[in-house]
Amino acid sequence: xxxxxxxxxxxxxxxxxxxxxxxxxxxxxxxxxxxxxxxxxxxxxxxxxxxxxxxxxxxxxxxxxxxxxxxxxxxxxxxxxxxxxxxxxxxxxxxxxxxxxxxxxxxxxxxxxxxxxxxxxxxxxxxxxxxxxxxxxxxxxxxxxxxxxxxxxxxxxxxxxxxxxxxxxxxxxxxxxxxxxxxxxxxxxxxxxxxxxxxxxxxxxxxxxxxxxxxxxxxxxxxxxxxxxxxxxxxxxxxxxxxxxxxxxxxxxxxxxxxxxxxxxxxxxxxxxxxxxxxxxxxxxxxxxxxxxxxxxxxxxxxxxxxxxxxxxxxxxxxxxxxxxxxxxxxxxxxxx
Length: 337
Description:
Structural class: alpha/beta
Strand order of the largest sheet: 3-2-1-4-5-7-11
Distance between the termini: 23 Å
Order of helices and strands: EHEHEHEHEEHEEHEEHEEHEHEHHEE
CATH superfamily of the largest domain: NAD(P)-binding Rossmann-like Domain
Helix content: 25-40%
């Protein structure tokens, strides 16, 4: 099956690594080969497996977007950011999928589109399941949430086959997102904040399984949360990074008011949803028993250490100005996928 992945980053790299063995996968990026050292590693690794690449600016090159979309059977949009100005959020999270919908409609309406959205959309109910009709009970309160929900409406309103996936926090073996880089840097120094906070999360391998299954199924229209059955404590993520690095880490209690200060910026929007329970029922339809994989987190710590030792540990999006908190200096910022 001919698959087109928009955006090169940890998530698309991981999914392409898994699905590229059985499908003909092409990945797009604004710079091919990438300048970013981590993305360059993704590019080189996938190239060795036969994955193809195309340079593309989806907003600046509408004709080229239509040209690249035309031969594809399945198109997966991985482009998005988690923080930034309202204009940046709207461009990445809403205008890109809107342009993609238009390109598919004009050049390849027989294609199947999978849009990777987000789990946090301004839910009111703390037991979160797929709402019906779409958007019912959702009250986005931030530019990020608004941009993500607007994109979903754009995709689901398209006159061709499509699905929207709402993954929770995505983790895996080659994750260079800034929040995991921050955890690694603290663990490397032997520091482990003890945070009474647990988050919903999903292994990127499960996300790849869902994408592969939907590509075969090709529903007329669908949207679902992609989530493991159970939460993972943020302190546990620190512990696993320490174990992966072979470090004895000092646990530092973080009182409630300081929890957000100790969290990487990419995880802070989730604090408001810490006591929410996201469904895993639809994920179980495709994965079976999506449970937390400790070894992948420890392996990710070793992956980041290798990058660090080569001087290539740069988060996918350069961090915003650092936040100073008692103790270590924590870098924060946003990621592009």
